[in-house]
Specification:
The complex is a heterodimer of chains A (about 240) and B (about 450). Chain A is about 30% helix and about 20% strand. With about 240 residues, chain A is of the alpha+beta class. A four-stranded antiparallel β-sheet of chain B has the order 3-2-1-28, with no helix packed on it. In chain B, strands 4-5-6-7 form a four-stranded antiparallel β-sheet, with no helix packed on it. In chain B, strands 8-9-10-11 form a four-stranded antiparallel β-sheet. In chain B, strand 9 and strand 10 form a beta hairpin. With about 450 residues, chain B is mainly beta. The chains are: A alpha+beta (about 240), B mainly beta (about 450). At the A-B interface, helix 1, strand 7, strand 8, strand 10 and strand 11 of A face strand 11, strand 29 and helix 6 of B.
């Protein structure tokens, strides 16, 4: 079975992202636009998001600090700059043509941005979209991407600028990418939730990439840190029972 | 079943076999049923990685990961092209791939060691990069790492036992590079463990039940002859909230339910398992109110079902029978009424079955557990191809003899295209998310 027919089936069954069949780059623009349709307009989800603070999110790993260049302001952003705030980090590349991947992550962050405002969580959570395709995703490309996504001041688009900094960033999250001969990038779809101390508390793939799930997790992480960044002792890995 | 009399166990009465159907340790290597979070090979696989138990009687002093070239047309097609030893014999059994398919994790059921192989750098030559030899200590007492399932950026491991050798056990999570995250014990009223299978789209996890180390590391003859041991098999499946990892429902399905497979078509919200002791096929299905119900849908016969593999379109289920050494094929078009299509004899015993994404190729291995394998067992990997009539045909000339390699257990597929190399990049799903499962 070819990738193409598989994708066709995949897109037919996709319940949330309304993106058209994710195909090749020539369809990129249409795919991106379609993917940015709010997820909430899709079919009813098969599960309810668990209420905030009704569950524990274990510390998955310590995220290494990293520095990336903000495409809008030109400022150097470090993970440590976000200390005390929850960070939703999307590692992506702008020409990703799979509507189930990077475009879905961007669409979800857009929905999350609205949800942050609705829940009055402004100032407590930052959204960060960082490219791992620094050569093609220039500042201009990222600015256009940011504009298309309707990103507000608390949603930054950034680039590691150099291959060395990109590799350091990826290895800090144990994430790998590979370039296929046709220029596409083979990568896992991952969006990370970091707590106020820069620890990975959740890793999202497709089904959990919903604004309601994401923000309930954010609220859970914010709550269990108290006001966060207060220097309280780090909890040991969770062991039930 | 017709072949049951073949089961020879040094004089053990056949009557015990009926009762024992003890679970076996099958696998979850089949491509369609790999974790929903993992990249899939949707075309021809290049490599078959076989986690293989060392056996001094065969002159093999270490467990090993054996790599077979399975790409038709390759000069080494059907041949072993690599063998990576772990340095010890530790009841090699199951393994699983990380979500990015960069690493293959394999476990030993005796000393609970976990070995992590890098299969991305050179998919034809897996490299052992890390061994976790303090698994029981770091997990707070878990023994017998069994099922290895990819979650985003981490591995979920279902264990079989704990320090006292009983079947009381739990689940543990590790990062993809081998750092412990957390342990979750099974509930007191259903303490056994075996498989753990997530449905990302439903936010549910299903677990099943086997037995503890006191039983699975005891000679089968003795297990059968010891009523106290025969009582130490689990009978439950537990439905969990995958996001919160809290149990929601417990199903008493009886008879050691082992391997679990979720349907992957978007319209299907069910999973299937077989019970080793009860030799029943069990359907676990989501109801309109969002809760689940379990029911028996078929009797697969006294074959001691040890592994199952569900096709990507959910229409074909393969079941291996340890006791009879056969591969059974069921039409699952109506999962409430499975229909037996055929039963193919493969040898004195059979264990794991893995099929390709397109269902065109099916691979089977022969070894179950060091203490349970039959005296007349033979060690091999066989391949069957789906014929135009929907029936399987053994591929003549493809039978990898493991007589000098060890006892072959679980299989996982590899492909160069997963890592962006090779000219056939079309044959893999490019992004690993839980995309294929939702299709």
């Amino acid at each position: 079975m070819s990738l193409r027919s598989d994708e066709r089936r995949r897109s037919r069954g996709e319940t949330r992202s309304r993106c058209a069949p994710a195909l090749r780059r020539r369809a990129l623009a249409a795919v991106l636009l379609a993917a940015l349709v709010p997820a909430s307009t899709g079919a009813a989800p098969l599960f309810e998001a668990d209420p905030p603070r009704s569950f524990d999110l274990p510390v998955i790993r310590e995220a290494g600090d990293f520095s990336v260049r903000d495409a809008e302001t030109g400022a150097l952003l470090r993970l440590s700059d976000f200390r005390g705030r929850a960070v939703v980090l999307s590692l992506f590349y702008a020409s990703c043509a799979d509507g189930n991947a990077c475009p879905l992550a961007t669409a979800t962050l857009r929905a999350a941005q609205r949800e942050i405002a609705r829940r009055r969580l402004g100032g407590q959570v930052a959204l960060l979209s960082v490219t791992f395709d620094e050569a093609r995703d220039t500042v201009a490309v990222l600015r256009a991407e940011r504009e298309r996504a309707g990103a507000g001041p608390e949603w930054r688009f950034a680039t590691p600028e150099t291959a060395a900094r990109r590799e350091a960033l990826l290895s800090g999250f144990d994430q790998r990418i590979a370039r296929a001969p046709d220029g596409t990038i083979v990568h896992p779809l991952r969006v990370y939730l970091l707590d106020g101390r820069g620890r990975v508390r959740q890793i999202y793939s497709q089904s959990f990439l919903r604004a309601d799930v994401l923000l309930n997790d954010v609220e859970t992480v914010l709550a269990d840190e108290g006001v966060s960044g207060d220097g309280a002792s780090v909890a040991p890995p969770e062991t039930l029972r | 079943m017709a072949h049951r009399q073949r089961f020879t166990l040094g004089g053990i009465a056949a009557i015990g076999l009926l009762l024992c159907a003890f679970g076996a340790r099958p696998g979850h290597a089949d491509e369609p049923c790999q974790s929903p979070y993992m990249a899939k090979i949707v075309g021809q696989e290049d490599f078959l990685y076989v986690w293989t138990l060392g056996d001094p009687a065969l002159g093999v002093q270490s467990d090993s990961l054996v790599t077979i070239d399975v790409k038709p047309g390759s000069p080494t097609y059907g041949k072993v092209i690599d063998r990576a030893e772990t340095g010890s014999i530790d009841e090699a059994h199951h393994g699983g791939l990380t979500d990015d398919r960069a690493r293959l994790w394999v476990g030993g059921l005796d000393n609970s060691k976990i070995h992590i192989f890098d299969i991305a750098t050179d998919p034809a030559k897996p490299k052992l990069v890390k061994t976790i030899d303090d698994t029981t200590a770091v997990t707070g007492g878990l023994v017998g790492p069994h099922s290895f399932i990819a979650l985003p950026g981490r591995m979920l491991i279902a264990f079989l036992s704990s320090r006292d050798g009983s079947g009381k056990t739990g689940l543990a999570e590790f990062t993809n590079d081998g750092r412990f995250i957390r342990t979750i014990w099974m509930p007191d009223d259903a303490p056994y463990g075996y498989d753990a299978r997530p449905s990302a789209k439903l936010n549910r996890l299903l677990t099943s039940s086997f037995t503890g180390k006191n039983v699975y590391m005891t000679e089968l003859a003795k297990v059968l002859a010891t009523p106290e041991l025969m009582k130490q098999f689990g009978d439950s499946m537990i439905l969990w909230n995958l996001h919160t990892m809290k149990p929601l429902q417990t199903f008493r399905v009886g008879g050691a339910p082992l391997e679990i497979r979720w349907a992957s078509s978007p319209e299907n919200n069910w999973a299937v398992t077989t019970t080793a002791l009860g030799h029943e096929m069990i359907l676990v299905e989501r109801k309109a109110d969002g809760t689940f119900a379990a029911k028996k849908v078929a009797d697969v016969g006294e074959i001691l079902p040890v592994d199952i593999s569900l096709s990507a379109d959910d229409k074909r289920l393969f079941v291996t029978g340890f006791m009879t050494g056969e591969l059974k094929s069921y039409d699952m078009t109506d999962p409430s009424k499975p229909r037996l299509v055929e039963a193919i004899p493969l040898g004195p015993q059979a264990n794991m079955v893995s099929q390709s994404w397109d269902g065109q190729r099916v691979y089977v291995t022969s070894s179950l557990l060091s203490k349970w394998d039959k005296q007349d067992a033979t060690w091999w990997v066989k391949k069957l191809n789906l014929g135009p009539d929907g029936k399987l045909v053994l591929e003549k000339g493809f039978e990898v003899d493991f007589a000098k390699l060890g006892r072959p257990h679980q299989m996982n597929f590899g492909s160069r295209a997963l890592y962006g190399s090779g000219s056939e990049a079309e044959k893999v799903a490019r992004v690993s998310g839980d995309v294929v499962a939702q299709r």
